[in-house]
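Quick start: read one record
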Amino acid sequence: MTKIEELDIIQGGLKICLNGTYGKLSSMYSKLYTPETLLAVTLTGQLTMLMAIEALELGGISVLSSNTDSLVFKCKKSELKKAEDIIGGVELVSGLNFEFDFLKAQYYRDVNSYVYITENGKMGAKGVYAPPTLSKNNEYPIVFDAIKAHLKDGTPMEDVIKSCTDVTKFVSGRAVAKGGHWKGKYLGKMVRFYYSTEGEPIYYTNVHGNDAKVATTDGAKPMMDLVDEIPADLDYDKYIELAHKHLENLGC
C-alpha cells in the first residue's frame, strides 16, 4: 500500500467520524444535540456558495452548476483574473477558502454524480462514478473504470472489462435490513454478489411476510467470501451493458 492510499483510508475514516458528529447535532437523544450548531454548519456553506454564484453572475461570469461544496463556471482566459478576484472577495467576507481546478471536460449524470478531466489529464469522479469508500457501498467498480478509461483515452469499454483480473472490481454490495437469501440460503444483512450467467435474484422478506427482490440483483450470484480468480460463469455482457447505460446517462 502506498502512502497516498494509506492517507486516503485515514481520510475516509475521519470523514465518517465528522459526518457522524454532524448527524448527531440534530438527534435529541445525543449529548451532541445542538440544532443551532447544525443550522450554522449548513447555512454558512450554502449561503457562501450562493454569494459566490451571485457575485460571479453579476460580474458576467456564467455559472454552469453547483452543489453543496463546489461550483463550476465558464469564462474566457482573459476573464480568469476577474473571476479569481470575485471569489477572493467572497473569501474575505465569508472567511472560507476556495480551491480552483481547471477542467478540460466534465460529464454529468446530475449535479452530485459526474466525471471530470482536468487540463493536466487528471481524472476524477463524484457520486456513483467515484471509487468505493468506507462510507459508500461497493457497486461493480469495473463499470466505472471502463467509463473513465473510455472518456479519457477512448479505450473501448469492452476491452477494459474483459481484461480485468481483479475479482473485487466485479463485486457489488447491498445492505439488506431484513437479511437477504438466495436459493433458500440465508446470506445476512450485508450481501455481496457478482453478475453470473447462472445467476438469480437475491430476495428478502418484507413487512408482509412475502419475498421481495433486492434492488439490482437480477442475474446475481452471491460471493460472501472473496475468491482469487475470476469466476468461470461471470457475465461479462451484463457489465458491458451496464457500462453503456451509465455512459448514456452522462450524455455520451
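The first helix runs from residue 3 to 24.
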